[in-house]
Amino acid sequence: MEEDPGVFIGAGFDIDVNNWFIGGEYTYATTEDSIFPETTAYYINAGVRFGKVTPFIIFED
Hints:
Elements lengths: L5 E12 L2 E12 L7 E10 L7 E5 L1
Antiparallel strand pairs: 1-2, 2-3, 3-4
Organism: Agaribacter marinus
Protein name: Outer membrane protein beta-barrel domain-containing protein
């Protein structure tokens, strides 16, 4: 397992302007000859600040 070649790719972003924000991330990982499957994951979130309250939404897979 220690010498099995693999690949990991990840990218993310954050935009924060005044009272709103949006961000996200994508990841991909795989290892050859492994019992673990290839994995792909991502999320995106967005919200707005109203003083001490920050409603937001997140979508992920």
